[in-house]
């Protein structure tokens, strides 16, 4: 009889815009590969058909006429649809095949961003068919530092990256993280003011403990 495959871990990195989530996702993926672990790095919004619509909205290329941004209610629906497609087409098959999946943003982002204006009940209902992460890292970076990093990056300021959006979203994140921890979710807060290498090492050590490597 064939030996059953051990399910991979679903690992999520979260934080406000400017927290360095994409950088840390790439570093974690690289370090895990170097250690011989089977791992997939992915992100939300995805590069799929629904994710591409979201990216157009974030960069102000998809707007209501003449130039009003897409509403948070529409964004919440798009994110939920993209997420379900992502899970079914990309995440679950890998996990069940024994591959660890590291995801740059997941449903906590929807709770923090769209849940702020639409209320948690509706946004959580939209995400009720999603799977729970095995481990989430919240990279904690205050909004004033996020704002500086976004300014240094240059280019377009995306839909949720303005200073008036960053501050309440950050406060909402802190509240959501504490509530999730109190309810038994495995969320580890990382000081995002540390150097990139220190953050990466701290995340890697926690992940290696979780996977038993």
Which percent range fits the helix content?
A: 40-55%
- Count of discrete alpha- or pi-helical segments spanning 4 or more residues: 8
- Specify the structural class: alpha/beta
- Gap from first CA to last CA: 26 Å
Principal-axes shape call: globular
The whole-number mean of residue pLDDT values reads: 91
Radius of gyration: 17 Å
Reconstruct the topology from this structure.
Elements: E1 10-14, H1 21-34, E2 39-43, H2 49-58, E3 63-64, E4 68-69, H3 72-96, E5 100-104, H4 107-118, H5 120-126, E6 135-140, H6 143-153, H7 163-182, E7 187-191, H8 196-211
Parallel strand pairs: 1-5, 1-6, 2-5, 6-7
Antiparallel strand pairs: 3-4
Helix pairs in contact: 1-8, 2-3, 3-4, 4-5, 4-7, 6-7
Descriptive notes:
The protein has 213 residues and is α/β, with parallel strands linked by helices. The chain is 54% helix and 14% strand. It contains eight helices and seven strands. The strands form two sheets. A five-stranded parallel β-sheet has the order 2-5-1-6-7, with helices on both faces. A two-stranded antiparallel sheet has the order 3-4. The longest helix has 25 residues, at 72-96. The radius of gyration is 17 Å and the shape is globular.
């Amino acid at each position: 009889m064939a030996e059953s495959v051990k399910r991979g871990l679903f690992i999520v990195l979260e934080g406000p815009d400017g927290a360095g989530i994409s950088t840390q996702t790439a570093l974690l993926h690289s370090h895990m590969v170097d250690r011989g672990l089977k791992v997939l790095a992915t992100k939300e919004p995805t590069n799929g058909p629904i994710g591409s619509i979201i990216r157009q909205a974030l960069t102000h290329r998809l707007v209501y006429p003449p130039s009003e941004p897409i509403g948070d209610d529409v964004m919440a629906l798009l994110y939920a649809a993209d997420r379900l497609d992502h899970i079914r087409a990309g995440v679950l098959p890998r996990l069940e095949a024994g591959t660890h999946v590291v995801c740059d943003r997941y449903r906590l982002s929807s709770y923090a961003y769209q849940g702020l204006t639409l209320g948690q009940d509706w946004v959580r209902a939209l995400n009720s068919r999603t799977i729970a992460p095995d481990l989430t890292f919240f990279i904690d970076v205050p909004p004033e530092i996020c704002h500086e990093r976004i300014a240094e990056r240059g280019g377009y300021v995306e839909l949720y990256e303005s200073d008036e959006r960053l501050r309440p979203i950050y406060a909402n994140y802190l509240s959501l993280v504490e509530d999730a921890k109190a309810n038994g979710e495995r969320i580890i807060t990382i000081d995002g003011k540390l150097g990139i290498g220190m953050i990466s090492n701290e995340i890697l050590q926690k992940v290696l403990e979780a996977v038993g490597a």
